[in-house]
């Protein structure tokens, strides 16, 4: 199935076209409340602005979102463009490694939370969230003196 239309950008790897929420195929971008999350969203907004995007639906994810390969009118793959910008990383489990060669140097270090999620290191996420909830100046911010 193919959808085509103007998009609303939810975050760096999620858009909507008309109604359905669409997860960009094969990549992982940071959530809005994670480092680089806002930057990733606005990069995707810039790519899509003023264009009709074509979404070729390929699956449904575990959260009920539609997964699609999304293309700009000139044929550019939105997933590939986000990876080339260094604001998303390939998710080989889903892409088969399709975007891995496009990753910029140190992208996985910069987007370390996304990398941790892909590798099942959820304790890294939990520690980050605990640090976000901790009061400023407390040990949760990494300011302890050892």
Automatic annotation (TrEMBL):
Keyword line: Endonuclease, Hydrolase, Nuclease
Listed InterPro entries: SNase_OB-fold_sf, Staphylococal_nuclease_OB-fold
Keyword Transport attributed: no
Pfam families: SNase
Residue ranges constituting the TNase-like domain according to the UniProt record: 9-127
GO molecular function, one term: hydrolase activity
Listed name of the protein: TNase-like domain-containing protein
Organism: Algicella marina
């Amino acid at each position: 199935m193919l959808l085509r239309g103007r998009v609303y950008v939810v975050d760096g790897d999620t858009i909507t076209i008309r109604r359905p929420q669409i997860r960009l195929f094969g990549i992982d971008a940071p959530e809005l409340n994670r480092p680089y999350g806002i930057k990733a969203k606005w990069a995707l907004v810039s790519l899509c602005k003023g264009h009709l995007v074509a979404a070729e639906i390929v699956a449904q994810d575990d959260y009920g979102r539609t997964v699609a390969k999304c293309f700009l009118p000139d044929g550019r793959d939105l997933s590939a463009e986000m990876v080339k910008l260094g604001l998303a990383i390939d998710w080989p489990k889903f892409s088969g490694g399709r975007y891995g060669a496009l990753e910029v140097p140190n992208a996985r270090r910069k987007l370390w939370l996304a990398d941790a999620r892909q590798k099942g290191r959820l304790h890294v996420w939990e520690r980050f969230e605990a640090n976000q909830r901790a009061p400023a100046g407390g040990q949760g911010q990494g300011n302890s003196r050892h």
